[in-house]
Write a structure and sequence with these properties.
single chain; about 80 residues; globular
């Protein structure tokens, strides 16, 4: 079972990670869907596509309280 304190800490760290990266705008759009699943080869840019979308949402006025991003490759889950 995931402890809420650990989940909260990881989510806060992920916020910093997302905002730290400068993302190049892609021609791909994730608009029009409530939920998306990004699947692809390692190092293909999936995380950066997600970072860009989150940055767009923040710039559009959404708050972090409305966005959930958890990186399950974080060492804390091992």
């Amino acid at each position: 079972m995931i402890k809420s304190e650990i989940l909260r800490e990881v989510m806060l760290e992920n916020r910093e990670e997302v905002m730290r990266h400068e993302v190049i705008k892609r021609r791909m759009s994730l608009d029009g869907f409530d939920r998306q699943v990004l699947v692809g080869a390692r190092r293909a840019g999936k995380s950066y596509i997600l970072y860009g979308k989150i940055q767009e949402l923040i710039a559009a006025g959404y708050s972090w309280d409305e966005i959930v991003y958890v990186n399950f490759e974080d060492e804390v889950w091992e």
